[in-house]
Specification:
The structure holds two protein chains of two kinds. Chain A is built from twelve helices and eleven strands. Chain A is α+β, with helices and mostly antiparallel strands. In chain A, helix 1 runs antiparallel to helix 2, helix 2 packs parallel to helix 6 and helix 7 packs across helix 12. Chain A starts with 21 loop residues before the first helix and ends in a 15-residue tail after the last helix. Chain B is mainly alpha-helical. Chain B has two domains: 45 residues; 120 residues, no CATH class. The chains are: A alpha+beta, B mainly alpha. Chains A and B meet through strand 1, helix 7, strand 10, helix 11 and helix 12 of A and helix 2, helix 5 and helix 6 of B.
Chain lengths: 427, 178
């Protein structure tokens, strides 16, 4: 078993996570092996951590960077217009703009695009190259934006960025007032619930069944089937984030770590995994109730389908139905129906033991992201959305309650439900 | 006597609502979103500032009980238990001092949690039976600690069943007049 030791310390005998030493960074890399591109993203941010706060860019600055990049990439005349900010995201800076070109064969061509750029540090240390590659691979499979360019290393932009097509649609109904203020727990309303829920599951099933073996996914490592590698990479990614970012120890999270390390499941089928598959991360057309784009692929990986399923079952993401009795997963179906529909549509089996493991892992990942990484980003003023990240600290306690409930189930045999809490307020 | 910060909070929220917000370009969704959050934080701190010392005291009291529960699972000669006992002794003394700066209570809470974490790790590495006895007890006590935090942050809107949580008044029962 690997404990959270040893650590580099500052002159007060405390681990200095604000100014990590090269030794500390290397120790984290060795102690928590994960995929190469993820290691690159974590290592990059730690080497740059002491560089100071994120400098907010103006729209004009970003347009200037786009023009500089396109001059090197497009052999014909172009024009950028209509630059505006996009809100909603907590992790990446997003700007919408129009690109108009005069191409020798096509003539005048115009398209609304989105620039998606990292702040100095974000909620999820991740790779724009991975995000670009997976979106490109799924272009003919489910509704996703069309990929244009990726700047993996921040060669053209102040930070790594990608540019893809703008997708129309909304994340939550505007004509239905029963919404939580957070953007989580989206209520699609009883009428649209089943139609949209089935599309939500169909998209996930297509992603999980997609044959990715011949795709250009060079920034992904492929875990071995019948090994625990996939689960270990996921866990180590979370542990590394917690170790590099947290303010202090929390015993509940130590119990979770120890249990997870002792119960890593084997992988039976290597699927593409979205990583943050939930309501709020897809757009839909309210007039047709059709999903128009699945977004936010920054946690994508190749691994175990149970991870996506478990992630989506959080109480913080769903909401209770009108009777107040049934938690609707992502606002669509009660848990059993959600699993039944997934098995029916995907023809992939759901292993309840694996779902239990990935439920505990998902709540652990969510809690350490919110309580560890979000804390550090805000403390060091590293993003354009510090105030939003500061607010979501409150979600950590909801997620930890779900984690506590699930752990109690596996450690004592009490509350052996699959999901987390679903019993708000219980002790 | 009126609290002088009340007028400050009220005026700041009013300025945001009536002057700043209408002046912001509605198409700048990032600015509109952040303005709403600034308003929310001001309102939250305005409405909770008189209770924040009770939160810190109660949180320490629950963690003190957590520490006592953990101590009962070990031999008192264990060096890590000696460390936890020393932390609990200081915490116990400071829980009685109702006029202390709240940062002292928060520091004790952190120290207790770190000592309990150390014990969990060491028991998992060296004596899994102790870990298996200890962890359900820690999980049970954490239910109360988390209920306190969730109730405190209720207005942030992350709870799926907000009415099922105990009120802060219930949670602050037993807290001295501080």
């Amino acid at each position: 078993m690997t404990s959270f030791l040893p650590l580099s310390v500052n002159s007060d005998g405390v681990v200095d996570r604000d100014k990590p030493s090269p030794d500390f960074i290397e120790l984290m890399r060795r102690q928590y092996p994960t995929e190469k591109e993820i290691d690159w993203a974590f290592t990059r941010r730690m080497h740059r951590r002491a560089n100071g706060p994120f400098k907010m860019q103006s729209l004009d600055d970003l347009v200037g960077h786009i023009i500089a990049m396109l001059k090197s990439k497009l052999p014909y005349a172009f024009e950028i217009s209509n630059a505006s900010w996009l809100g909603g995201g907590g992790s990446k800076l997003q700007m919408k703009f129009t690109l108009a070109t005069e191409q020798p064969l096509k003539g005048h061509y115009q398209r609304d695009l989105v620039l998606r750029m990292e702040p100095a540090e974000s909620l999820n240390p991740s790779s724009r190259l991975r995000e670009g590659q997976i979106i490109d691979a799924l272009a003919q499979v489910i509704p996703v934006p069309e990929m244009y360019w990726v700047d993996r290393d921040g060669e053209w932009f102040p930070e790594p960025a990608l540019i893809y097509s703008f997708s129309s649609g909304i994340t939550k109904p505007t004509n239905f007032s029963n919404q939580r203020v957070t953007g989580l727990g989206i209520n699609f309303g009883p009428k649209a619930r089943r139609t949209m829920g089935l599309q939500f599951i169909e998209c996930l099933a297509k992603v999980h069944n997609f044959d990715h073996s011949r795709c250009d996914l060079t920034s992904f490592d492929r875990p071995k089937i019948r090994s625990t590698e996939s689960a270990m990479w996921q866990l180590n990614r979370a542990l590394r984030g917690w170790e590099e970012d947290r303010a202090h120890d929390i015993p509940l999270l130590d119990i979770a770590r120890i249990w997870l390390q002792r119960h890593l499941p084997e992988l039976d089928h290597a699927s593409l995994i979205h990583g943050d598959y939930r309501s709020g991360n897809f757009l839909f057309d309210p007039s047709t109730e059709k999903i128009t784009a699945v977004l936010d692929w920054e946690r994508c990986t190749i691994g175990d389908r149970h991870r996506d399923l478990a992630w989506a079952t959080s109480e913080a993401i769903g909401h209770y139905d009108e009777s107040g009795n049934d938690l609707l997963i992502c606002g669509f179906f009660p848990l059993e129906e959600f699993i039944d529909e997934y098995e029916r549509v995907s023809s992939l089996k759901v292993d309840l033991e694996k779902l239990r493991f990935y439920t505990i892992l998902s709540r652990f990942q969510q809690a350490v992201t919110v309580l560890g990484t979000s804390y550090r980003v805000v403390r060091l003023k590293k993003s354009h959305q510090d105030i939003l990240l500061s607010r979501i600290e409150a979600a950590a306690y909801v997620l930890m309650e779900e984690l506590r409930h699930a752990l109690t189930g596996v450690l004592t045999g009490k509350n052996p439900t699959l999901q987390g809490a679903h019993h708000a307020g219980s002790k | 006597m009126p609290d002088p910060s009340e007028n400050g909070f009220t005026a700041a929220i009013k300025a945001l609502n009536e002057v700043v917000t209408p002046a912001v370009d509605r198409t700048n969704s990032l600015a509109v979103e952040q303005l709403r959050l600034v308003e929310m934080f001001l309102e939250f701190y305005r409405s909770t500032r008189d209770l924040s010392r009770k939160l810190d005291w109660t949180e320490l009291n629950l963690n003190f009980e957590l520490g006592q529960t953990v101590c009962a699972c070990f031999q008192s000669t264990d060096p890590m238990i000696k460390n936890l006992n020393a932390i609990l002794l200081l915490a116990s003394s400071d829980l009685k001092m109702t006029g202390l700066p709240a940062v002292k209570w928060r520091d004790h809470t952190q120290n207790i949690q770190e000592a309990v974490s150390q014990l969990l790790r060491s028991s998992a590495d060296q004596n899994i039976e102790i870990f298996e006895i200890l962890s359900p007890k820690v999980l049970e006590k954490f239910g109360e600690i988390l209920a306190l935090k969730r109730s405190w942050f209720l207005s942030f809107g992350f709870e799926a069943k907000p009415n099922a949580l105990p009120s802060l008044n219930q949670l602050f029962e037993g807290c001295p007049d501080i």
